[in-house]
C-alpha cells in the first residue's frame, strides 16, 4: 500500500515538471525525483524438552519465540529553476 502511494506521488510530481516546461520557455528548469520501498521480516524460535523416568518421571520444557516486521517508504523531490 505504501509502495503504491509513493509511486503515485512520484508520477504526479513528474507530470508537474513536464507540464511546467512549455509555460516558461525562456527559463530553465531541472529536478530529481526518487522513490523507494523497503520491507523486512525476521523470526527466531527455540525449544527444549527433557523427560527423565518414563511417563511418570520429571518433564521439563522451555520455549522462546520472537518475530519482527518493518516497512518503509520514501519519496524525495528536488526542483531547480533559473532565468537565462
Structure characterization notes:
This protein is of the alpha+beta class. Helices cover 26% and strands 62% of the residues. It has a two-stranded antiparallel sheet with strand order 1-2. The two termini are 42 Å apart.
Summarize the structure.
By secondary structure, the chain is an alpha+beta fold.
Q: The biggest beta sheet, please? A: 2 strands, antiparallel
Instruction: Please give the count of helices.
Output: 1
Q: Strand portion, in percent?
A: over 45%
Q: Strand order across the biggest sheet?
A: 1-2
Task: Give the class from helix and strand content and strand pairing.
Answer: alpha+beta
For the CA atoms, what is the radius of gyration? 28 Å
Distinctive features:
62% strand; 84 residues; 1 helix; 26% helix; single chain; 2 strands; rod-shaped; alpha+beta; two-stranded antiparallel ribbon
Write the topology of this structure.
Elements: H1 2-23, E1 27-52, E2 58-83
Antiparallel strand pairs: 1-2
